[in-house]
Design goal:
The complex is a heterodimer of chains A (about 210) and B (about 80). Chain A is mainly alpha-helical and about 210 residues long. Chain A has 9 helices and no strands. In chain A, α2 packs antiparallel against α3 and α3 packs across α4. In chain B, α1 crosses α3 and α2 packs across α3. Bound molecules: zinc ion.
């Protein structure tokens, strides 16, 4: 997206927000249409459940309407929407019993005393093409992401999946930029390790066949 | 020469292209001598791309879209009455 395009989008959005604050219901429809997919996708990735994601999306849309006058424009409107979405999703998750997360540290790379890699690292990056679109691979990837601890997962979803900038993520989560980077790096290391298990097994089976 | 641990700590910034020239150079020298770290780099990149491709294609299912639509319509009616 070009800079001018981004600027225009921002202006349109700001105008819609002003209209909504003035009580314009059509502006509300437009905002809902603009954001419902983003809200649904993020809450679905956090909860992995259609009904829950639907509930959260409804709730967020309603909150946007009811609380629009508390939005003061200190951060971007979209950051505000993401924050409301995260809060609503976490409330929903907490109301349910959840499985304990695995510790991320156990899955980080290990080194010997001299700082060299200890485990055998297989390069499976060339063999993912044919596997990418199988349902099994997708399930493996989703499960791996579901296992991420909450702090790392949210950074990963906003930055790597929603493709927001590091600065934007730090605004949404009220974290420093280095903290965002470090959580994202840990998330990627964790996921790499999880996916390695799957792809290495696949490659070794293929080798035997 | 940098060790594998430092190499992996730098991967994030290397992948973003935000390392200075000298650090990039010593990292690339390490890669030349260390196939495991190349494999690590490649799979680190792949992981990010695979996860993105899998998770960013979530669409609102039709039945959810309908529910949301009628929810918004109801809401609008209520507000118009006020
Ligand atoms: Zn190395």
């Amino acid at each position: 997206m070009s800079f001018t395009q981004q600027k225009e989008d921002k202006e349109i959005e700001e105008a819609l927000v002003r209209d909504l604050q003035a009580g314009d219901l059509d502006a509300y429809d437009k905002i809902a249409t603009l954001y419902q997919k983003k809200i649904y996708a993020l809450s679905f990735n956090l909860m992995r459940n259609q009904m829950d994601a639907q509930d959260v999306t409804q709730e967020v849309l309603l909150t946007l309407f009811r609380k629009i006058n508390t939005f003061q424009g200190k951060s971007a409107f979209s950051s505000w929407v993401y924050r409301i979405t995260l809060n609503a999703s976490y409330m929903k998750l907490r109301s349910k019993k959840k499985e304990p997360n695995v510790s991320i540290d156990e899955l980080l790379p290990s080194f010997n005393g001299a700082g060299f890699q200890q485990e055998k690292i297989q390069d499976w990056s060339g063999s993912t093409e044919s596997l990418l679109f199988t349902n099994e691979t997708r399930e493996v990837i989703k499960k791996a992401v579901d296992l991420l601890p909450e702090k790392e997962k949210v950074v990963f979803l906003l930055r790597d999946v929603e493709c927001l900038s590091t600065e934007k993520v730090s605004e949404i989560l009220d974290l420093t930029v280095p903290a965002v980077k470090s959580r994202l790096h840990r998330a990627r290391l964790f996921l790499r390790k999880k996916l390695s298990g799957y792809f290495e097994e696949y490659n070794s089976q293929k080798g035997e066949a | 020469m940098i060790c594998c641990k430092e190499c992996i700590d730098l991967l994030y910034d290397y992948f973003e292209g935000s390392l200075d020239q000298d650090t990039t150079k010593s990292l690339e020298e390490h890669f030349e001598d260390c196939p495991p770290c190349i494999a690590f780099l490649n799979t680190y990149k792949s992981t990010t791309l695979l996860c993105r491709d899998t998770l960013n294609q979530i669409e609102i299912p039709d039945e959810v879209r309908h529910t949301l639509q009628s929810f918004l319509k109801e809401h609008k009616k209520e507000q118009e009455k006020k």
